[in-house]
Design goal:
The complex is a heterodimer of chains A (about 425) and B (about 325). Chain A is mainly α. Chain A is built from 19 helices and 2 strands. The longest helix of chain A has about 30 residues. Classes of the chains: A mainly alpha (about 425), B mainly alpha (about 325).
Chain lengths: ~425, ~325
């Protein structure tokens, strides 16, 4: 860390303080929390791209899996659904697992040939029909139970902090499957495969109501922090707030945001510390050697595909953790909000702009770009209203332009990516 | 008789739509595969290229309709197609000049080019949304059906109808003409041969005096033509929505990979493989089984393998199967 980098980080905090004074501290802390989350996601992508040069564009899928983890671990179980449909769902999932294991065993043990192909097809097709035959009735039963409020299995009722780890595990599992298939082939196959798995994960979350209530959203996911309502009734809290001379309602939501902020800082610090340690260890040097020259590293006896798989899983897990954290911050799971633009592309731009290969760079990119992302729309609107000020009031072109300000985000982010890639490919804080 | 009815149902709901969709995918996948073959990277902006060309076609269609031009019973969009192609060629050549050329000269790894294409995707997508908006646009005019389901029933006396939309037949005819022209170009003309030579072995092609920049330019022009036609046909057949075109990337890539990246014949075959699988896996076969099974065996459920929301899962699974078992694709494309 030199003075330049410290001043870059300082600049962001100055921005946040300006927002705090000019708008409100609530807004500033809300921004800070999302900056922290973005930084964690950016670290995840940096592990994949910066360390190993893996181009994965399925970040949104891994983030969404984290969100599912938050629901599945921390929501209270719907007793009736578990009793009536639970066994069916569990046997269906067991069937699917057994089918996949059986298929992979056949693949490994039976010698290549027609026999193996026939066996594979029989096992996979049979397994699929068995899976559907068990899942469908169970899902139908579950979805009928109080559809307005429940209609899903609920979760395990475990502490929500635990779900952050589970989110990482879910994402790691998905990454393992994808990595196994597409790593070791040409580089862009990973990109295509991750693009596909992300679309599928989101389709599942949107459509499998028994798991995530689909587009009906899951609300009221437990928090790791206090609730505003409780704070506003707690006498000690009111006393302390009065002593500070703040309003109780504002102070309570500030307190909640602040506690989230502290938790996020802790997670970010742990992940950042581990990433730094990993990057500067023999393992990190090997990764960079593989990235810079695969043939040479392979000639030195490094198992490139295996290392790639490892680093791909690690990076995806970090994105999954961030996804679970984000869902527990929002307190709700809204499948429609998982847009590739917001969760894949934006994170990529963060990494590239911040400095790929450098953990601090990724963190900086996460902070800076999130800030920018929030501000682009008002700025775009402002620019367009200046540009269109000469046009007649109520002209359709003017209205069209002003309405389109929201799409400025896409254009600006694309332009930032292309410009950085071309003129400053090392980013703001280059790799050492 | 019942078997015949079942076949008509299948033709109406699977075969006819899949042929149209397959032709659209094939044209899209051809564009992707040509870029892979000549420029050696996977162009993630291909869906957006299609959408951009289609957008200009739509704007021109609106202009022509406002002027009262029409080629009834064909959709006006066919008249606007050349303008869309010109606009698309312009934007594609501009992106090449300002974005891809630099990395080509610098001999960057394909991954960097792929990433640049992602940046292009978002700028183009933003431009499209900026100009025409993110919503659905229907621009198919002219006659809608060649045969309506009801007419088919009265003419033939069958209980089931078979409808063929004008857009579906236009899709097929156009696709056949375009593909024939493309293969004639690639196999018979000097320029086409130099393109194939460059795709097969860059160094040898350069040694024999082929101008790489010219090959690249012609490739982009062909890609723009194919993309605009594919996008317009898809938009005529369904509707135009920018996000849908982005999502078409997955089935198109799957088609190109199934056929073998870099192989034009493969891309066409892949397009139909993907289209037929996608539609036949997500179709509810209840009616078909009601016809062919004895009455008391008739199914009570929809007999649908996957809900239509999972159509991506079908293209994805096929992609995965190909990657696992035959990474070079059916027609031996590039694999590493």
């Amino acid at each position: 860390m030199n003075y330049r980098n410290i001043s870059l980080f300082g600049m962001i905090f100055v921005f946040l303080i300006i927002v705090g004074f000019s708008q409100s501290w609530n807004v500033a802390f809300g921004l800070l929390n999302l900056c922290l989350l973005s930084a964690i996601m950016a670290l995840g992508v940096n592990i994949q791209w910066g360390y190993a040069g893996l181009f994965s564009i399925g970040t949104v899928g891994f983030v969404a899996l984290g969100g599912v983890a938050a629901v599945v671990t921390s929501m209270p179980p719907v007793e009736e659904a578990w009793r009536t449909g639970g066994p069916g769902i569990l046997t269906a999932l067991l069937t699917a697992t057994v089918t996949i294991i059986a298929a992979s065993q056949i693949w490994k043990r039976v010698p290549a040939g027609i026999l193996r192909n026939i066996l594979m097809i029989v096992v996979l097709v049979g397994g699929f029909f068995l899976f559907r035959a068990m899942l469908d009735p169970a899902a139908a039963i579950i979805e009928k139970i109080n559809p307005a409020g429940e209609g899903y299995l609920g979760g395990l009722g475990l502490p929500v902090l635990f779900s952050w780890l589970v989110g990482g595990l879910f994402a790691a599992g998905a990454a393992w499957v994808i990595g196994k298939i597409s790593l070791g082939l040409r580089a862009d196959y990973l990109a295509i495969a991750t693009l596909g798995i992300a679309e599928i994960i989101i389709a599942v979350i949107k459509n499998e109501d028994w798991l995530t209530r689909g587009v009906k959203n899951v609300i009221g996911i437990p928090r790791p922090t206090a609730y505003e309502v409780d704070l506003q009734q707690s006498e000690t809290f009111i006393k302390n707030v009065n002593w500070l001379g703040m309003e109780v309602i504002e102070a309570s939501s500030l307190y909640v945001k602040f506690s989230y902020g502290i938790l996020f800082v802790i997670v970010l610090a742990i992940i950042l510390w581990m990433s730094e340690k990993a990057l500067n260890s023999p393992w990190g040097r090997m990764m960079r050697a593989i990235r810079d020259n695969e043939e040479a590293a392979e000639a030195m006896g490094k198992d490139v595909t295996k290392r790639h798989l490892q680093v791909f899983i690690l990076g995806s897990a970090v994105c999954g953790i961030a996804g679970a954290m984000m869902t527990s911050l929002d307190g709700l799971l809204t499948p429609q909000s998982y847009q590739p633009l917001r969760f894949t592309f934006l994170i990529w731009v963060m990494v590239i702009v911040g400095g790929s290969g450098n953990n601090w760079g990724a963190v900086l990119g996460g902070f800076l770009l999130w800030f920018f992302w929030v501000e682009v729309e008002p700025i775009g609107h402002w620019i367009l209203s200046i540009l269109t000020s000469g046009m007649a009031e109520g002209s359709s072109l003017k209205e069209h332009l002003l309405d389109s300000a929201a799409h400025m985000r896409l254009i600006t982010m694309g332009a930032i990516l292309l410009l950085t890639l071309r003129f400053a490919p090392k980013g703001l804080i280059p790799e050492k | 008789m019942d078997i015949l009815h079942a076949l008509i149902v299948l033709a109406n709901f699977i075969i006819v739509p899949a042929i149209a969709y397959g032709s659209q995918l094939a044209l899209g996948a051809l564009g992707i595969t040509l870029v892979v073959g000549v420029l050696r990277f996977s162009n993630f902006a291909h869906g957006e290229t299609m959408a951009f060309g289609t957008m200009i076609v739509i704007l021109m269609t609106w202009l022509f309709t406002a002027m009262g031009l029409s080629i009834y019973p064909l959709p006006t969009a066919l008249l606007a197609l050349p303008f869309g192609i010109i606009g698309c060629i312009a934007i594609v050549l501009l992106t090449d000049k300002f974005v891809y050329k630099f990395y080509r000269k610098a001999k960057s790894t394909p991954v960097v080019l792929v990433m640049a294409s992602l940046g292009v995707t978002f700028i183009m997508n933003g431009l499209i949304r900026f100009i025409i908006g993110p919503g659905d646009q229907r621009f198919a005019d002219g006659a809608r059906f060649i045969i309506k389901a009801r007419d088919f029933k009265t003419i033939t006396g069958f209980k089931e109808g078979l409808a063929i939309k004008v857009t579906q037949s236009i899709t097929l005819v156009t696709a056949i003409i375009v593909v024939a022209a493309l293969f004639w170009f690639l196999n018979k003309t000097r320029t086409g041969k130099s393109m194939r030579a460059y795709s097969d072995n860059e160094d040898l092609a350069l040694l024999s005096g082929i101008n790489p920049e010219r090959v690249v330019m012609i490739t982009w022009i062909i890609v723009a033509i194919l993309a605009t036609i594919a996008g317009t046909l898809y938009g005529l057949d369904k509707t135009f929505k920018p996000f849908t075109y982005f999502q078409l990337l997955l089935p198109m890539f799957a088609a190109a990979v199934v056929g073998g990246l870099g192989s034009p014949v493969g891309a066409i075959v892949g397009g139909f493989v993907i289209a037929f699988s996608e539609i036949s896996f997500t179709y509810a076969y209840k009616k078909v089984f009601t016809y062919i099974l004895p009455t008391d065996w008739a199914p009570t459920s929809l007999v649908q393998l996957l809900s239509t929301d999972y159509k991506f899962a079908v293209s994805f699974s096929i992609l995965v199967l190909v990657l696992l078992f035959r990474p070079t694709g059916l027609f031996k494309g590039q694999s590493t």
